[in-house]
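Students often ask why inverse folding is considered easier than folding. One informal answer: many sequences map to the same fold, so there is more than one right answer. In these notes we will look at a single instance of the problem. The structure comes first.
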């Protein structure tokens, strides 16, 4: 708080209320300041005891790192679909993929030389061994079981029982068979249709008869059986992860072993590896930020940089200790409240550092300004107690207003439907409370002790040792710091002059216009790719996949429930491709069902098999005129025999769900969306608008099939797409409510509607300008930027309220003089 002088005019009713609120706060802090000044060591001990006791709650900290539990609104349609899907089809596979293109670029990868190198690479992956807890594992030990992997199925060949997708299947993944092949292209053309080949070959070229001529890239995909379990909020599959590191990644990273190929690769562990490394590296910045803050505080909190009378390096350390105590205490209470802790919460120390340093400057500045020209060496114990009491009364109201507005701003956003954002803001609110409480007690008490240290001419930090007195140490009273002096002598006169006001007004009007334009045009997008480190092999893989397999998108499953319904609708289900054709260029953007990679339907496969071969090899059930088993029981027996791992339809084994009695519960049809990406500012990002359109249109399409119900769609992308449907609305709603509530709080505490409106509008302008610069820099609204915008609201409120509150407490009729005094008082704190 700044010192208040009697206003010349009679205050209005509202101003009177504001004055009474302010006086009540001053009265409370006057008493608290007196207690802290009389018993600084007792106060510090109490503060430490309470903070450490609260910090004990960290033992109950619940970590959560699963994206669907952090960035997805809970109880949504997508969550219900996911729960239903996973109840029928639990996670079964981890995905490993390598795209081998010709070296140099543009070379034909389906030449014998390059296919031999690709087969040698596969051989190293198949035979490679990893060791976990003393046991050896190979690909065939860990792979997802499936038939149809080899062109000539051999049940004794382990790789033929693993789910692997590649043209190398034409040689049963055997190097000698490939080397003995005299006509490579003829063999490849037996792989399937043109569309089937395009699913596994990039840049494929065909002649007029749709016969493969050449290709620029070959895709090899391996699927490992998923053994993941939730551990401390993370899905962990240590056995598979060890194999991925020791065998798959180790093999594909030996590029010199395959000189005619350029390899781009991706593993299920890739994202955790790459992002984990980046996050660990970013932790260095946390330490650096605190070191920078310490240096800045030491240089500016006192009147001297070097240790001596006037320096405050011990108080700089005290500030960091205060922030650390508030952090651990807040985390402990939040943990006891059951709030989840996610990766984004690591940003909180930065936020608390900014707010805590601000409060420290306000209190230290108040201590300096309350000296009233009395030299330190002449100050008595009672005089120091009175000064500490007045200083906290002076600063307490200011830090209370700003802390309250910050707390409310974050508390409002804690109602967000996004769990990560809601938890982050709840953590922030609790931490800000502790920061306020410790600033008013712990930091104030340490300030009193430090003032005694300076009065007794003891060394900074090494307070047990006295310094020799010199003429330089002469202290005749309060000295204004160099930052306050700068604001009083240079900054304020410049901006408050007539030309200065014109320049500032025009400049900020232009900034506001720029910000408004950017805010209106700022899109909501999925910018997950932007978080991939530029030098990461994941980025290389993404670019390679975009180049050679641009039509490959996210998988979509249509789940049809009830075996009785399957039998009743058997013909319609077998012809489902007719219903999903022609939808690739408009919502729902489903890829054409013309290849194995874009359409897999067990009912279609069974229909074709029965039509060509009858049922003798799969149970021998009698077939009716429509080519299907004549009874439901025969149908169920035939289906299960067909998809048996050793049956002709073994490739569909994972698409059928059985209950505990081995009766059919449901089956799924696999489709694929086209690649829903776009170029934004020269970068390829996921197109969230099209993803939302595709999700909604898919649901509408399935709901319209009234003859095939019950059925529902599922895609792993739906769960995050639901978040993008609401994130823009969430952002503007939370920011708007926060600003409105802050305006009300400032109005009630200041008691002047014009000043409250100016502060509120200033905060709103800051946010609009931030949104404008986000647009200019190519930053979109996503799950990360929305967190930063909420932070910006809190910090903007903090600084605007400090200056506005100080201005209103300054007496006199000259507004320029009041503004100058406010900047001299609060400028250093805000800066």
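Output (designed amino acids):
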């Amino acid at each position: 708080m700044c010192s208040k002088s009697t206003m010349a005019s009679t205050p209005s009713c509202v101003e009177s209320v504001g004055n009474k609120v302010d006086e009540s706060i001053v009265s409370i802090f006057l008493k608290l300041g007196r207690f802290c000044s009389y018993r600084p060591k007792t106060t510090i001990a109490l503060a430490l005891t309470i903070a450490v006791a609260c910090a004990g709650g960290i033992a109950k900290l619940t970590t959560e790192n699963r994206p669907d539990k952090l960035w997805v609104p809970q109880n949504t349609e997508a969550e219900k679909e996911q729960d239903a899907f996973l109840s029928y089809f639990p996670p079964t596979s981890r995905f490993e993929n390598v795209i081998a293109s010709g070296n140099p670029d543009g070379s034909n990868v389906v030449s014998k030389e390059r296919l031999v190198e690709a087969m040698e690479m596969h051989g190293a992956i198949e035979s490679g061994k990893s060791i976990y807890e003393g046991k050896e594992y190979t690909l065939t030990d860990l792979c997802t079981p499936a038939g149809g992997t080899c062109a000539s199925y051999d049940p004794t060949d382990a790789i033929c029982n693993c789910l692997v997708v590649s043209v190398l299947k034409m040689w049963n993944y055997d190097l000698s068979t490939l080397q003995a092949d005299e006509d490579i292209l003829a063999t490849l053309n037996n792989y399937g249709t043109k569309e089937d080949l395009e699913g596994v070959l990039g840049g494929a070229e065909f002649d007029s008869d749709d016969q493969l001529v050449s290709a620029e890239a070959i895709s090899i995909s391996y699927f490992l059986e998923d053994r993941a379990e939730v551990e401390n909020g993370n899905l962990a599959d240590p056995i598979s992860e060890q194999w991925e590191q020791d065998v798959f990644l180790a093999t594909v990273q030996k590029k010199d072993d395959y000189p005619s190929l350029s390899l781009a690769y991706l593993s299920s562990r890739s994202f955790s590896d790459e992002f984990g490394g980046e996050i660990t590296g970013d932790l260095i910045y946390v330490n650096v930020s605190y070191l920078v803050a310490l240096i800045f505080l030491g240089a500016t909190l006192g009147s001297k940089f070097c240790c001596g009378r006037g320096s405050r390096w011990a108080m700089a350390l005290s500030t960091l200790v205060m922030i650390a105590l508030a952090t651990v205490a807040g985390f402990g209470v939040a943990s006891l409240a059951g709030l989840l802790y996610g990766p984004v919460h690591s940003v909180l120390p930065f936020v608390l550092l900014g707010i805590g340093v601000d409060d420290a400057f306000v209190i230290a500045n108040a201590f300096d300004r309350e000296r009233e020209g009395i030299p330190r060496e002449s100050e008595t114990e009672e005089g120091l107690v009175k000064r500490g009491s007045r200083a906290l009364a002076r600063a307490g109201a200011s830090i209370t207003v700003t802390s309250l507005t910050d707390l409310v701003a974050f508390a409002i956003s804690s109602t967000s439907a996004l769990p990560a954002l809601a938890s982050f803001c709840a953590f922030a609110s609790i931490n800000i409370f502790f920061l306020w409480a410790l600033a008013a007690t712990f930091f104030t008490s340490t300030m009193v002790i430090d003032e005694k240290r300076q009065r007794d001419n003891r060394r900074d930090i090494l307070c047990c040792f006295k310094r020799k007195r010199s003429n330089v140490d002469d202290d005749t009273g309060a000295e204004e710091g160099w930052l306050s002096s700068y604001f009083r002598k240079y900054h304020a006169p410049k901006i408050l002059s007539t030309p200065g006001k014109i320049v500032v007004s025009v400049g900020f009007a232009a900034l506001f216009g720029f910000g408004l334009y950017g805010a209106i045009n700022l899109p909501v997008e999925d910018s997950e790719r932007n978080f991939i480190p530029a030098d990461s092999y994941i980025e290389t893989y993404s670019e390679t996949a975009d180049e050679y397999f641009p039509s490959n998108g996210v998988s979509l499953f249509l789940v049809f429930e009830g075996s009785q319904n399957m039998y009743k609708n058997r013909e319609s289900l077998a012809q489902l491709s007719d219903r999903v054709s022609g939808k690739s260029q408009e919502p729902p953007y489903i890829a054409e069902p013309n290849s194995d990679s874009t359409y897999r339907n067990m009912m279609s496969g069974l229909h074709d098999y029965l039509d060509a071969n009858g049922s003798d090899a799969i149970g021998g059930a009698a077939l009716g005129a429509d080519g299907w088993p004549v009874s439901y029981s025969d149908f169920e027996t035939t289906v299960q025999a067909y998809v048996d791992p050793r049956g002709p339809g073994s490739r569909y084994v994972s698409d059928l769900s059985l209950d505990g009695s081995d009766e059919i519960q449901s089956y799924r049809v696999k489709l694929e969306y086209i690649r829903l990406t776009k170029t934004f500012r020269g970068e390829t990002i996921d197109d969230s608008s099209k993803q939302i359109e595709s999700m909604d249109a898919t649901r509408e399409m399935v709901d319209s099939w009234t003859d095939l119900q019950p059925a529902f769609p599922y895609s792993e992308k739906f769960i995050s797409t639901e978040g993008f449907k609401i994130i823009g609305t969430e952002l503007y709603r939370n920011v708007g409510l926060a600003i409105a509530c802050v305006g009300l709080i400032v109005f009630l505490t200041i008691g002047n509607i014009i000043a409250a409106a100016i502060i509120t509008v200033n905060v709103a302008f800051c946010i609009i300008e931030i949104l404008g610069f986000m647009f200019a820099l190519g930053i979109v609204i996503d799950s990360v930027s929305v967190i930063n915008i909420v932070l910006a609201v809190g910090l903007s409120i903090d600084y605007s309220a400090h200056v506005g509150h100080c201005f209103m407490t300054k007496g006199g009729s000259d507004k320029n003089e009041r503004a100058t005094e406010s900047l001299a008082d609060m400028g250093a704190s805000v800066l």
